[in-house]
Design brief:
The complex is a heterodimer. Chain A folds into two domains: 102 residues, NADH:ubiquinone oxidoreductase Nqo5 subunit (Beta Polymerase, domain 2); 40 residues, no CATH class. In chain A, 15% of the residues lie in helices and 31% in strands. In chain A, the strands form three sheets. In chain A, strands 1-2-5-4-3 form a five-stranded mixed β-sheet. Chain A has a two-stranded parallel ribbon with strand order 6-7. Chain B is α+β, with helices and mostly antiparallel strands. Chain B has one domain: Orthogonal Bundle (Cytochrome-c3 Hydrogenase, chain B), CATH 1.10.645. Helices cover 48% and strands 14% of the residues of chain B. Chain B contains 16 helices and eight strands. The longest helix of chain B is centred in the N-terminal third of the chain and has 29 residues. Classes of the chains: A alpha/beta, B alpha+beta. At the A-B interface, strand 3 and helix 2 of A face helix 8, strand 6, strand 7 and strand 8 of B.
Amino acid sequence: MIPVESESSTKNGMKVVYVAKENIFQYLKERKEEGFDTLLMISGVDYRDHLEVMYHLLSSSSGSRLIVKTKTNDEVDSVTSLWKGADWHERETWDLVGIKFKNHPNLKRILLAEGWNGHPLRKDYPMDKKQYVNLGDDGEDIVSYEKTEGY
Amino acid sequence: MEDRVIEINFGPQHPSTHGVLRIKVKLDGEIIVDAQPVIGYLHRNAEKLAEMGSYPKGMIYIDRLDYVAALNMELGYVLAVENLMDVQVPERAQWIRMLMVELNREASHLIWLGTHGLDMGMLTPFFYCFRERERILRIFDEITGSRLLYNYFAIGGVYSDITPKAIEMIKAWTDDFGSKLEEIQSILGKSYIYVSRTKGVGVLTAEDILSYGVTGPMQRASGIKRDVRKNSPYLYYDRINFDVPSRTEGDVYARFLVRIEEMRQSIRIVKQVLDKLPQGDFYNKKYSKPMLVRLKTTGESYVPTESPKGEFGIHLIGDGSSIPYRVRIRSPSFANLSSIPTMLKGYKIADLTAAVSSIDPVFGEVDR
């Protein structure tokens, strides 16, 4: 059994547990074997002094829910080997919040263009600096701060 | 072997991608060996936008997620905010919400049905579906004043009461929509071409469904009978009778049947809501408009709801100021769409449009 650091709950009584980031993969694997077979989403929160990753789990047979959180500074283990759906959610979390996932097979940006500067959901992201995307000669996107012919 | 495989681009601008979806398809002759969806063409970062204004301001961005079922999106947001702030909502407002959400589910499924028929090469169901949807939009126009993006649900209730004229319109609609639906179903379901193009196509097993986190009608078409309205009821879904349709085949045809049956159940729900609609306030007077922008809270909340595409919910985190600290959107289409590589592998290129449109993706919600 992987120890839980602390426990709390959301306003509507959903259980929230904090797990150390070294144990997150093992903890989620244990929960999956216990019956939490659906991973609804993975998301990241920027708390300025640290980042947090949230995993929303659901048991399709009993209907019980669990939110697992872990604190990190840059990276956590990927859970793509447990759930195929984690692939896109982890790519999105990397794209928008800037949390790296170790052992992810294809950790690229998913919503923004490859080469985008910064991660928009970080609290220190400069909102006044516009970035423009252009199509390069090789068919790949080019991101720059200068407005050229792009969109 | 390797040089026989060619790579083609499906989309981003293609009539049957339902928006701006690009799929990189690798073909060996006619057989799809690999299909990788590319998304992000409609990305606006609604999460960041909603984190920049007060709680009621976030609503206008949430509206624009799944723009064909805007009220279902609004419901997810208001329920999360109300839960976070312990806002009491009058009973009449809750029943009105349920009525509107079910009508919007019908409108969304009708759009899906029409465009799905279009993808299968049939123009007729498209007109039939849009005729029926038009009647629902006129009801919405009468109640909310707009036809597509309503901004109708407010924190603590709804913005306007239902008029007697609207109730007459809804009653007239529920009376004959059932037979119209029968008609539309028979155009597709009795067509040999349609059935042979959809049966056994785009199969997802129950195992795939769980692994990808697929929810909604797609999940129920693969034998997992789970509906948030039944399993963890919100509003007053526990006080009315309805069935959760499900199939076990997991193919495009099963998804078609499940959605049609869901529309029948929605009519049942609408009829029951009209019978039970109590008199009273339609919003909580404590939360009038000037009050709303000053709402402050701490803590977190996630309220799951059943949108037409699957489980929709918003994880809200407040930090004590009047601006939400984190608005995380759980969008069902995003997870459903990620199952495309498994769903298409081994099928022919002609099955691609059938399989993709059976997901019912709406790109406002996928790309957010």
